[in-house]
Design brief:
The protein is mainly alpha-helical. The chain contains six helices and five strands; from the N terminus they run E-E-E-H-H-H-E-E-H-H-H. Strand 1 and strand 2 form a beta hairpin.
């Protein structure tokens, strides 16, 4: 459980809307969208869209690598602070792939129409560079940022309360996805 990020003090609520609300989706239709739609919402509503798209890119990389296939519209939100509209802090960051048997999709919202066999081209070239318009240098910085945390991930998995079998599955999944995205 984390601290509430949609409050400032005891009685001051901050404006917070998830992407389902922003795209007129319901709980039942929260999977009927795409990562491209999320990018469009950021372009439309955020004060500094390119900064928020970089944050989104980082989250997409992280969630794909750790096996969080459940990042649907209700797991992304915009928050307004000091008249600035931006992505809210991340939430629901967990590996659903090893926890839920029989998953048939790698991601909840497609990238370029794909929910499976996601690779470097899909995430880096198409989504990051082409669709989000993130400069190559910034993408390289984000990749380096992820790599710099990778050894820590391995340590955290090792000291977690997961069974040895689950730890092994988790490490194999992260290794496979890392190889597919970064080579």
């Amino acid at each position: 459980m984390g601290r509430r990020f949609d409050r400032k003090g005891h009685n001051n609520k901050l404006a917070l809307e998830d992407f389902a609300q922003l795209s007129n989706a319901t709980r039942n239709t929260k999977y009927n969208s795409s990562m491209e739609q999320i990018v469009s919402i950021i372009d439309e509503f955020c004060t500094f869209p390119i900064l928020e798209k970089i944050k989104l890119f980082r989250r997409i990389l992280f969630n794909f690598l750790i096996g969080n296939e459940d990042m649907h519209l209700k797991n992304f939100s915009l928050i307004t602070r000091n008249r600035k509209v931006e992505l809210s802090p991340a939430y629901d960051l967990l590996n659903t792939t090893i926890a839920l048997p029989n998953l048939i999709e790698e991601i909840a919202l497609p990238i370029g129409g794909k929910k499976n066999k996601i690779n470097h081209h899909d995430v880096i070239d198409y989504l990051g560079k082409e669709r989000m318009k993130i400069p190559s240098k910034k993408i390289e910085e984000e990749i380096e940022r992820i790599f710099s945390c990778y050894l820590e991930w391995e340590k955290l998995i090792e000291i977690s309360f997961l069974s040895e079998t689950m730890k092994e599955k988790y490490n194999i999944l992260v290794q496979d996805r890392k190889k597919r995205i970064f080579g």
